[in-house]
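Hi R.,

Here's the chain you asked about this morning:
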Amino acid sequence: MKPVVIGITGKACAGKNQYAKAFEELGARLIDVDRLGHQALEANKDRIIAEFGDSVADRGEIDRKALGAIVFSDPSKLKALEGISHPWMVARIERILAEETAEVIVLNAALLSRMGLDRLCSHILFIAAPRCLRFRRCKARDGLSWRQFLKREASQRDISYQLLDPKAIHHRLWNWGSMEIIHRQVQRCCGRIGVKRCSRN
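And here is the predicted structure, written out as tokens:
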């Protein structure tokens, strides 16, 4: 039986990880695309250092903070990085999906559409939250200033409910920070999707 693939997307600090975790707790197989992104940096570190210079290297490893400061300040640099990392990540995800036996698979990916991963999903959850709340979360989590937050926002203009693959069924969920509400939203989504349980084989 073909698994149900659910994509979770949304702008920075909208709360995607909380929703992904709620699905995982119900038994879904979670693919954390951000984590794969870290693996992609490691797998392609020689190309990345050649592209961006030694300033993004720290004792032979990629300094993600230094790299982020470069790419979020220059759209052309961000595009160059994505040209290196995204093909590796997409190939890895396609391989995982081909081998996975779980009934429900969740792709947690901010750049779901930009990477073309929305075409792999039958359902997409777009997680939304007020900008002021997302900024407070970004400041607490990443130490971003308002200016840095706006730069990150500018790099995510294409993360939009309206730009999702029209072939998938879309669900827009508002996250105000309550895990109790998030769990209820996820359970309702499972009901709409027709998934009684997210068991793994």
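One quick note: The mean pLDDT is 91.

Cheers,
M.
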